[in-house]
Amino acid sequence: MDGTKQSGLVKFKDNLFTVKDSLLGSFIRSGAPTSDRSRTAIMFNNFFLHVQTVKTHINTLRPSYTLGMGLIALFLMIIAFISGIFLMVYYNPSIENAFNSVKDINFVVSGGKLMRNVHKWSGEAMIIFVLFHMTRVFYTSSYLRGREFNWLIGIVLLVLTFLLNLTGYMLPWDQLSYWALVIVANIIAAPLEMTDIMGVTKYFDIGGISKELFLGGLVPGKEALNRVYLFHIMLLPAAILIILGVHFWRIRKDGGLTRPDKFDRKDTDTTYITPPDKTGDIFPTYKTYGLMELAKGKTPAVDNDVENTVLSWPNLLIAELAVMMFTLAAVVAYSFYIDAPLKELANPAIPENPAKAPWYFLGLQELVGYSAFMGGQGIPMAALLGLALIPFLDRESEHTGIWFSNKQGLTVTIISFIVGTVGLIGTLAFTIQYGWFRNWWPNIPQIVIVMINPGTIWLGFVMIWSLATIKITGSTRMGAIALFTIFLVSYIILTYTGTVLRGPNWDFFWSQSEWPIH
Amino acid sequence: MHSRFYLSLLLISSLVLMMFIGMGVYREMTSEWKTYQTEYKNMLVRNAEDDAARKRAEKLEIGLRQNYVASLNKSDRCMSCHIGVENPYMAKADQPFTLHSGDYIENHPVDKFGCTICHYGQGRATNKKEAHGKGHTHWDYPIIPTKYIQSACAKCHDYKMLQEEGAELVVKGEKLFREKGCRGCHKLNGVGGDLGKALDGIGSKPRAYYAMKHVVGEHTAYNWIKQHFDDPRAIVPTSEMRVFMEEDESDLLTTYIFSIREEEMPSKYRFLKNIVTPPRDGESLYKMFCVACHGSGKISVYDEIFDRTIPAITNPPFLRSADNKTIKNIVMEGRGGTQMTSWKTTASGLKEEDVDKIVEYVASSRTYERPEPFNYLEFQTNIDSGMRLYNNRCSYCHGKEGKGGNRQLGINLKNSTVQQVLDPEFLALTIRDGREGTPMPSFGGDGLGLSDQNIADVVAYVKTFGKKK
Q1: Is A174 on the interface with B (CB under 8 A)?
Q2: Structural domain boundaries of chain A?
Q3: H-type alpha helices, B30-127
């Protein structure tokens, strides 16, 4: 008995002294990443790393291929999450205190103003980079070969990004928040225009019901703020996290990032990869290799790993870390100089003029100016539907992994860009200069304007343009390029118009400095 | 390691990030209020009279000062910079360290009242620009200029006390407000005319309530109100407001305007001991509601803004033809188509007994020399002849359809006052004798040669205007 007791204590003592090693060992099971084997093991032993492959294709690591857009969007989201938790500590979601608590974050919370700026700008930058990421994915045909479903998930993520930003915009309860809330509620109520035309609003007021559901009442108030807050801090983040998990899992399942079928290594690749050391473990030094076969190619592939891949640890992870640090530094630097806007306390009696939605919806608001239903719901739905259907209508997968597919693709992109820019600016200029049907024939039925307005005409033109491209080039991919290019151009031009060129009463001005002084 | 590209990106980004975090920390450590407090502390140490005082000064903690006054819902951080506001030794110091002027602070201790309850501005802000809230700071209530500061006193104190204890500017403003006839056009607490905007809570209206386009200098509500008093049409080109100001009266009225506030102070802050009800005799009421347009009422004035003649209502010829009942009817019903609005209780909030007092005051200069009665009812009237006469003699001023207006001199004869309220006798007398002091000439007898029968016909015709659609 005595001896057993003795040895138990000794065991305990030994365990105690080796606690550092055993504890670390339980965290990092494969030991320090010093050999290819342990570098491999670390990737699939770690929960957070195992969603990525053990080996990464060199093409994926080329900055010129992905431009890091998706990664930047992810890191922006993480930054927004962390800064958001910081802000949540101080923010109070009641109409009495919301504005004051944001003021306090700005004025007395240590680092509060910077944190709020970081939160605001990382969130809004997310929109830009999610769109950039989508653009990259599109122009490299990365929505094909089993990735069709992931493209759809990507569109859901885009919508969630918009919604997260929008709900966040409403929380400070200042004039911007309040009137954006009013505008968004009115966009939600846009089917009213249709039900009014059909004369069934009395029985089937889908627009009014949606609006009431969103606001928790007829006008924005404390219920609306609570709803928006709940969405912003709980439902939408949870949704985006889960769906983002699926997005990443599908990338893995669909065979990683796309790459061209015919891949050649370049000399410059060595600036961003570490070649495998090929010593120890699976490449024991005591083994020798004999020449078995002559194969085409410049040199024997001694330094190359299987199929132009390199180990993810450290190659991929160092790249991710660098992009993360770059994103963080850029956001903090921007936030250091530019403050997130905060206007006067919300005042239902004094409308902002112009009352504007957040900038990323001003393209929609521009269209809403023509027809509430078409601009607010019809055209955006059509655009989203068009985007979603691209992988199913274009199945030419031979260009996958190549920017703009081929020379013809680049030409179509450039021509569509020019046609889109000139055409849309022309349409807007005409409408601004000469007005629309209502100005010419005041008694025209509203249904005609809903159906035929600059927005729908433009939508129709884009469809015809894409179909014409398909017919002329004989390639659905070219049609898709034409469609997507004009979509991007339209989003940018309409957003610019709504943001910069529209002033009080939604009148046209070249810049804000020309606005009449109120 | 060969991944030079990503490693350099990592290194540079990390350095940039550290630099900006460092700059952020530095910016917070050297904030405006910290600099001021350090300066203040040094001043105290330098000027200490003895060692004990110096030691106390050295112990002064540099930190954000905040007055949270729960019952006023105010968090004022003004003392983070204005740290010497309660220190008598700071009487001669420069801003922001100087002692509060006067003896107000003795009776209004900062910890019970805060600062913004009187001075406005953004109490939560911790830098000068946003705390004072001037310029483009997106703050609704910028700091109030000291010349209007007495408006804040009236939030809690009665006018008697204000008069006696040194807030006479707002008292004078209030008196001017009553005597300039502001409520002839503006409602306050539900009583007043309809031409202008109601003034309830006007002092609490945010900056965005005002159209600042033509305001000279800082775009604040204070400047808007003051400059609007000086020249209404310079600020609002379409304004019909009539003002007659002497020198400093616009400042006094501005002070009073900013004491009309939406928010009510908690009862424990209010100090209302001698509430003196302003006089409500006929003369006071006349001034309160009528004087802005009618002035003394002795002479008719052609008003360019109204584009019509404002009739003399206290001159004897008018009073001779109009008896009290007629005057009261006109006051109660108003004159449709003119700036004279109805003063019925339902329209103006004015009680009928007050209207009676006003009518009595207006009629007080009547000489009791009634005109020779016309006896309208004794005439057999002929509407066709009345129509011919009207078209020949009256329509030039009153219009073919009797609508008046449109740069025509005559009043609207279609309005309900003429049609329903005024009796034909009064109309006939007006046509026969004219209205002295107005463009309405005497048509009867020796004047423009209408016989009494003619006049009766015209009256009968005029009375038919109300029946046509």
Answers
A1: yes
A2: 35-276+299-352, 358-518
A3: 32-47, 51-58, 104-107, 110-113, 116-119
